[in-house]
Amino acid sequence: MSNLLYGLTLFIVVALTLASPAGAQDAIATHPIQPAGYSSIKVFDRNGRFAGRILPEKRYWVPIDRIPAFLQKAVVAVEDARFYEHSGIDVRGIARALVKDVVKGRLAEGGSTITQQLIKNKYLSGEKSIERKLEEARLAMDYEKKYSKKQILEMYFNEIYYGRGAWGIAQAARVYFDKNPEELTEAECALLAGVPKNPGRYNPLGKAADVGRRRDVVLKRMTDLNMISARQKQKLRSQRVAVTPPDQASWYLAHIRNLLVERYGPQVIEAGGLEVTAAMDLNLQKLAEKTLREGVKRVSPDLQGALMSLDPATGDVLAAVGGVDFAKSSYDRAFLARRQPGSAIKPLIYAAALEKGITAASVWDDSPVAYVRGANQTWKPRNYGGEQYGELSLRKALAYSNNVITVKVLETIGVPYFVEIARNLGLSLRSPNDLSLALGTDEVTLRDLVSAYTPLANGGLRAEARTVLRIYDKRRRAWTDNPPAVTQAISPAAAYVTTQMLKDVMVYGTAKSLRKFSQARPAAGKTGTTDDYRDAWFIGYTPGVVTGIWVGHDKPRPGGKGFTGGTVAAPIWERFMGPALSGRPAADFARPETVVAVTVDPATGYRAAPECPEQREELFIAGTEPVAYCPAHGGELLMPESPDLPVPEGETREPAATDNPM
């Protein structure tokens, strides 16, 4: 207690002995002057719902004559009623505050003036000590010698913190009301005047009860000082103030911001004045953020993830989430991160094979094969777990995600051919000499991989991913439309047959956990897991929505046995797609006329003979269907559809980075 009394004595002595002459008129702005008439970039979803704003990163300075007189009075009333009378420190206020400190035995109340608060914000820490308070007082009185009251008040408004990342009145007016300071109403000013006391609690987006009580304190103080009448106080208390809601889609807004900068240059953000209609569905975006966050944390709190959902007909990005927590890490793993897709690449290889005349009924042998790398080294692709199935139809090979057969299929159609097909699908793959592409060793973004699946759901038509539908420039009063970009990537027949094959993935294949979902509505998809369980994928679709999930670590490392696309990513996909499709009809994929159905013996791939013990209907691109009956059960003997595949020599490729089929 003696230290506190000593500090009290010393503080008052300093206060009484240092006088403050009239301030000078030095230049005080430390940031660019805010342009008049600024308006932020507003983003709306495809249905016209407000999603958020894209605000400038720069801080701006507002001259005192552009700050409403009501706000100036309100701040003086509630923060420092004797502001225009004291010389930087208010001795009476200090004495009153320190008496309370003595009673409580600690520094509970500071009695700081506006000048002292300015000094503390600009130069000092928030530490509560006698030494820090003395330094604050000394600097405050120095400021009063150097600057006028008007300048000090201007600096205060431009330096003080208003919560929610808003430093200064320019940012505060923009963040909470989407206005310039000179446009603020008296009711809005009353709210902002109460914020500096506790920015986290009293900012206009805080709890309504807390914010309202603090506003009432401001208005009562103004009434007590005869700044406003009791009638004005009641009128301002009863006025409803519309506060601009916080952003509702941080990941999507960040992407649009980058897109605008890329298209128009960084100055577009500072200029503002745009209204952007996004392709986003705000309800789906919120669902996606919640589902991904909860789904990834169910596996491990250390993991990251991404989700992308498209309309396959237009390429509209209905939802895009680049991570589990934007506040902790804003890096966009949906649009920017490149990772190995593993077996999620296989449907594109099989679609290319169908275009080459290979059929879903063709039978392939997954016996081991070795490829010479050079320097007497060989690469031997293996199946997940090292198992062998023997002979499988192409349909089953895809459902089981058979690695060896996929490599043989890629070798048969030729890597250059597949790379060209992939380019048509929107994937730019590396050197056309590497069979390890069959196992998803090249890196892709989630956006590009999901886009590459859109032709499978859309009759072979590829729609480029689109996040912006149109932009309105308020200054020019002009619209800029961004129409869909759709091209034919593969034939409608190849897309349809591939999709029917991928339905089996969700029935008995690597995503059989989704069987119940696929029974409720037609759907298709593929899992992907990279080497050592580093990345888990699932890309699945219905006729109206294509959604992809990625889960993994930012710095790739094994996720542990069982960390597969089927067990990690597919359940997240289901938890998103269920609610996302609620209310939509369970429509099936449209079958083109160029697809024919033939009953075959799945063990041989030929037309089923009457004696065949197992028969099933298989789909074919017209002209590729078998014409002969099964030779194993009394039919005419014909050469097999799949050629014998010799082990090639002279291969010069790197070993696969992934062998997992999941």
Automatic annotation (TrEMBL):
Subcellular location, in the record's words? Membrane
Keyword Cell wall biogenesis/degradation included in the entry's annotation: yes
- The ranges of region (Disordered) come to 640-662
User: Catalysed reaction(s)?
Assistant: [GlcNAc-(1->4)-Mur2Ac(oyl-L-Ala-gamma-D-Glu-L-Lys-D-Ala-D-Ala)](n)-di-trans,octa-cis-undecaprenyl diphosphate + beta-D-GlcNAc-(1->4)-Mur2Ac(oyl-L-Ala-gamma-D-Glu-L-Lys-D-Ala-D-Ala)-di-trans,octa-cis-undecaprenyl diphosphate = [GlcNAc-(1->4)-Mur2Ac(oyl-L-Ala-gamma-D-Glu-L-Lys-D-Ala-D-Ala)](n+1)-di-trans,octa-cis-undecaprenyl diphosphate + di-trans,octa-cis-undecaprenyl diphosphate + H(+); Preferential cleavage: (Ac)2-L-Lys-D-Ala-|-D-Ala. Also transpeptidation of peptidyl-alanyl moieties that are N-acyl substituents of D-alanine
Per UniProt, residues of the Penicillin-binding protein transpeptidase domain are 306-577
Q: Which Gene3D superfamilies does the protein's record reference? A: Biosynthetic peptidoglycan transglycosylase-like (1.10.3810.10), DD-peptidase/beta-lactamase superfamily (3.40.710.10)
Q: In which pathway does it act?
A: Cell wall biogenesis; peptidoglycan biosynthesis
Q: What is its main location?
A: membrane
The cellular component terms of Gene Ontology attached to this UniProt record, alphabetical and capped at eight, are: membrane; outer membrane-bounded periplasmic space
Please list which residues make up the signal peptide: 1-24
Q: Which UniProt keywords apply?
A: Carboxypeptidase, Cell shape, Cell wall biogenesis/degradation, Glycosyltransferase, Hydrolase, Membrane, Multifunctional enzyme, Peptidoglycan synthesis, Protease, Signal, Transferase, Transmembrane, Transmembrane helix
Q: Which InterPro entries match?
A: Beta-lactam/transpept-like, Glyco_trans_51, Glycosyltr_51/Transpeptidase, Lysozyme-like_dom_sf, PBP_transglycosylase, PCN-bd_Tpept
Which one of the record's GO molecular function terms can you name?
penicillin binding
What region holds the Glycosyl transferase family domain? 53-222
Q: Which family does it belong to?
A: In the N-terminal section; belongs to the glycosyltransferase 51 family.
Protein name per Swiss-Prot or TrEMBL: Membrane transglycosylase and transpeptidase PBP1A
Provide the species name.
Answer: Geobacter sulfurreducens (strain ATCC 51573 / DSM 12127 / PCA)
